[in-house]
Amino acid sequence: MATPSDIRRLALVALYQFDARPDDDRAQMRKALSETVLHSIDETMHEEEGLLFLTPKEPFNERDERRAFDLAQDAFAARGSADREFETLAPEWPTRRLAPIDRTILRLAHFEMNSGRTPPKVAINEAIELAKSFSTEKSPAFINGLLSKVLKRLQAEAAGETSAASPEPVPVEHHADAFTDADLEAHDRAIEQADAVEDANTERAEG
Known about the structure:
Layout: H1 4-20, H2 26-39, H3 43-49, H4 62-77, H5 79-89, H6 100-115, H7 120-134, H8 139-158, H9 172-177, H10 181-206
Helix pairs in contact: 1-2, 1-4, 1-6, 4-6, 6-7, 6-8, 7-8
């Protein structure tokens, strides 16, 4: 079974394609994602669009592919709220002006942070790592700065505040140090435990 980080990378591939071809048939795009997994590297995407898909530590199974595709669909459906917040935070850089890969990373992280499916700080750290892998040298700092402001808003809402001053972007090197391998492994274990419960419930229902 692939790790949550691997599934997130696969979701990034799907979300990138949704952004590039929003009117394409979803069933066909789901099939294309399976072909990407099968070949590990999508040569067309790599050569024409510069997005390299890395082979996961563990092979993807059908459920991994489904989870990645569903995550991408949900993030794409919520792109409007993400784009509006980012435009408010950085009006000189609306998402339509961003490089497609940066826009995709930001939308994915924004959805994970706001949906509650991933701890916000973990989502930011994962987004920074995606930017390091797939985008330009300056992108991690830019993405970190925007998502840090989203985090500040979420923290203010959780504390019952109606407004909060925009924070200064956290330097990437300091931010990355705040999340150890143990933190991410603990998050991965929690996801795996939830998956095990889901599998057990499915087996009982089918039995």
